[in-house]
C-alpha cells in the first residue's frame, strides 16, 4: 500500500501551461497562467536542452507572474514552457527522516533511498502556535557546554542566538551542541555553508551517534538564493513534525545572516527598494515569522506539549554586534551568546564572552544558590577585566584591593572552567558543581 500511495503522491490530474516572457537577473517572468497562481506556488520551467528547473512564484506584475528558480537558469529563455501541476507544496516528513541528510526540497543528499514515501506532505510555511494557547517554557535543558549551562542556562522551548564574526568558532560550538545537548531529536540547518565543510561537519563533528538522532538540511553557498532561503523553512517544518509528537527537539541553524542575505537577493531582484544597509523591509518582516515558530507547542489533552529549542547563529559583519540583522534577531530571541574574537585569539574555546551574554530565563530557572554562584563568578570576571592592563603591566600590588586580589587568585581556575575541548562532555549539574568547587562553596 505504501508503494502504491507513493506513486500517486506526486501525480497530478491537471496541468496548466504558460510561457517564459522575460529573464532579468535572477527573476523569470511567465505569462498565460497568472490567474491560477498565488504566492508560493511552484512551477516547472522546461529548458531548451530538455532539462527541467523548479521555480516558485514570488510576485506579480500586471499579467505576468514573477518566478525565481531552485536551480541554474541555463537553457531558459523567452518562449520556454512553464507548467503548473496544482500539487500542494510541502515535505513528506516521517520518522524515517532521522539520520538523513537532505536538501531544502526534501531530496536525499546522502545517496540513500527517497524519503517519506506515501506520507502526507507537511507545509513548510505556517503560522506559529497561538500565543495564548502554546505551553510555557519547559524544564532546564543541559546543552553539554559548561559555560552555557552555567551562565546562560537554557530551558526547553527557549530560543538563543549565537553571535560572532567569521572564524571565531560558531560551527565548532554548534557541533558540540548537536552531539551533547539533552534532546530527543536534533534538526540542523546549514544555510550557505561551504561545500567542503558539510561532509567534515557530518562525519567528524556530528559523528555517527549524533547523526542517528538528527536530520540535517543543507543548502551550500553555491545554491541559488531561493534554495538558501528555503533551508530554514524546511528545517522548521521538520522540527515541528517531531514537536507535534510530544518530543523535545533541538533546532540548530547556521546561520540566520545567510538566510537574510538570500532574502535580500530575492527582494532586490523583485524590485523592492533597499533600506537598512541594503536590506529591503521584507527581510525584517520575515524574520519574526520564522523565528517565532520555534518554542513550546500546544499541550495535548493530557497536558503534554513538545517543544523546539532553537539555537540560531548570527554572523556579525566586522564584529559589529549592532548591525541590522544582529540587532533585529536579538530583539526576537530569548537570550544571546556572544563569541569574542579577542578571546579566540587568546586560545580559549568556546570563545564565549560571559559578561556580554545572557539568557532571559535566568534567574527564574535556577536555584538561589546557583544564581548567587554565577553572580559571584561574573563579578570576578568583571573585576579582572577592568584591572587586566594594570595587572599585566605590574602596576597593581597584591593587598591593594580584596576584590582584585580574589580575581587574580581565581582567574586561572575560571579560565580552565570556561575552556572546553569539543569532545568533552559536560552536564548541567556538573557545570554548577565545577563552578562551586572554584569558590569552595557547597554544591548547589
Short structural description:
It catalyses: ATP + H2O + cellular proteinSide 1 = ADP + phosphate + cellular proteinSide 2. By secondary structure, this protein is of the alpha/beta class.
For the largest beta-sheet, the strand count, sense and barrel status come to: 9 strands, mixed
Number of domains: 3
Span of the ends, CA to CA: 56 Å
* Number of β-strand runs: 17
Q: Helix-strand pattern, N to C?
A: HEEEEEEEEHEEHEHEHEHHEEHEHEHHH
Number of helices: 12
In words, what does this structure look like?
This is Flagellum-specific ATP synthase. Pfam families: ATP-synt_ab, ATP-synt_ab_N, T3SS_ATPase_C. Its EC number is 7.1.2.2. The protein is α/β, with parallel strands linked by helices and 444 residues long. It has 3 domains: 13-87, Thrombin, subunit H, CATH 2.40.10.170; 91-362, Rossmann fold (3-Layer(aba) Sandwich), CATH 3.40.50; 369-439, Substrate Binding Domain Of Dnak, Chain:A, Domain 2, CATH 1.20.1270. It is 35% helix and 21% strand. The strands form 3 sheets. Strands 7, 10, 11, 12, 13, 14, 15, 16 and 17 form a 9-stranded mixed beta sheet that branches. A 6-stranded antiparallel beta barrel has the order 1-2-5-4-3-6. The chain has a two-stranded antiparallel ribbon with strand order 8-9. Helix 3 (170-180) runs parallel beside helix 4 (195-212), helix 5 crosses helix 6 (256-269) and helix 11 runs antiparallel to helix 12 (428-439). The relative contact order is 0.12.
Task: Give the helix/strand layout.
Elements: H1 2-9, E1 16-24, E2 27-31, E3 42-46, E4 52-61, E5 64-69, E6 81-84, E7 100-102, E8 140-141, H2 146-151, E9 154-155, E10 159-164, H3 170-180, E11 185-193, H4 195-212, E12 214-220, H5 225-243, E13 248-254, H6 256-269, H7 281-291, E14 295-296, E15 307-315, H8 324-332, E16 335-338, H9 341-345, E17 358-359, H10 368-393, H11 402-418, H12 428-439
Parallel strand pairs: 7-12, 10-15, 10-16, 11-12, 11-13, 13-15
Antiparallel strand pairs: 1-2, 1-6, 2-5, 3-4, 3-6, 4-5, 8-9, 14-15, 16-17
Amino acid at each position: 500500500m505504501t508503494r502504491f500511495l507513493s506513486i500517486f503522491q506526486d501525480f497530478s490530474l491537471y496541468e496548466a501551461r504558460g510561457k517564459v516572457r522575460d529573464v532579468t537577473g535572477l527573476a523569470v517572468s511567465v505569462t498565460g497562467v497568472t490567474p491560477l497562481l498565488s504566492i508560493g506556488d511552484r512551477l516547472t520551467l522546461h529548458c531548451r536542452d530538455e532539462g527541467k528547473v523548479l521555480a516558485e512564484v514570488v510576485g506579480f506584475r500586471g499579467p505576468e507572474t514573477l518566478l525565481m528558480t531552485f536551480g541554474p537558469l541555463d537553457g531558459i529563455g523567452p518562449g520556454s514552457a512553464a507548467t503548473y501541476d496544482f500539487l500542494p507544496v510541502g515535505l513528506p516528513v516521517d520518522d524515517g527522516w532521522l539520520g538523513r541528510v537532505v536538501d531544502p526540497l526534501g531530496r536525499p543528499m546522502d545517496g540513500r533511498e527517497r524519503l517519506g514515501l506515501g506520507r502526507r506532505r507537511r507545509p513548510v510555511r505556517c503560522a506559529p502556535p497561538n500565543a495564548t494557547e502554546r505551553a510555557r517554557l519547559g524544564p532546564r535543558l543541559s546543552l553539554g557546554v559548561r559555560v552555557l549551562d552555567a551562565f546562560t542556562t537554557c530551558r526547553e522551548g527557549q530560543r538563543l542566538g549565537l553571535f560572532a564574526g567569521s572564524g571565531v568558532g560558531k560551527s565548532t560550538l554548534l557541533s558540540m551542541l548537536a552531539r551533547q545537548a539533552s534532546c530527543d531529536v536534533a534538526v540542523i540547518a546549514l544555510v550557505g555553508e561551504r561545500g567542503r565543510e558539510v561532509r567534515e561537519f557530518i562525519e567528524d563533528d556530528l559523528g555517527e551517534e549524533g547523526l542517528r538522532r538528527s536530520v540535517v538540511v543543507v543548502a551550500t553557498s553555491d545554491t541559488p538564493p531561493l534554495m538558501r532561503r528555503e533551508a530554514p523553512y524546511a528545517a522548521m517544518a521538520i522540527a515541528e513534525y517531531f514537536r507535534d509528537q510530544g518530543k523535545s527537539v533541538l533546532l540548530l541553524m547556521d546561520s540566520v545572516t545567510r538566510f537574510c542575505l538570500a532574502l535580500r537577493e530575492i527582494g532586490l531582484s523583485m524590485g523592492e527598494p533597499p533600506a537598512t544597509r541594503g536590506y529591503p523591509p521584507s527581510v525584517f518582516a520575515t524574520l519574526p515569522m520564522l523565528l517565532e515558530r520555534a518554542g513550546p507547542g500546544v499541550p495535548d489533552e493530557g497536558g503534554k506539549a513538545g517543544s523546539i529549542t532553537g539555537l540560531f547563529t548570527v554572523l556579525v559583519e566586522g564584529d559589529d554586534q549592532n548591525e541590522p540583522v544582529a540587532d533585529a534577531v536579538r530583539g526576537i530571541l530569548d537570550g544571546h551568546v556572544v563569541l569574542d574574537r579577542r578571546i579566540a585569539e587568546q586560545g580559549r574555546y568556546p570563545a564565549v564572552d560571559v559578561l556580554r551574554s545572557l539568557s532571559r530565563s535566568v534567574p527564574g530557572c535556577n536555584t538561589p544558590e546557583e544564581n548567587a554562584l554565577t553572580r559571584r563568578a561574573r563579578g570576578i570576571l568583571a573585576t579582572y577585566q577592568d584591572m587586566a592592563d594594570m595587572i599585566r603591566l605590574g602596576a597593581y600590588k597584591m593587598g591593594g584591593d580584596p576584590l582584585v586580589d580574589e580575581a587574580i587568585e581565581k582567574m586561572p581556575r575560571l579560565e580552565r572552567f570556561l575552556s572546553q575541548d569539543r569532545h568533552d562532555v559536560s552536564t548541567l549539574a556538573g557545570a554548577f558543581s565545577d563552578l562551586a568547587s572554584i569558590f569552595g562553596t557547597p554544591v548547589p
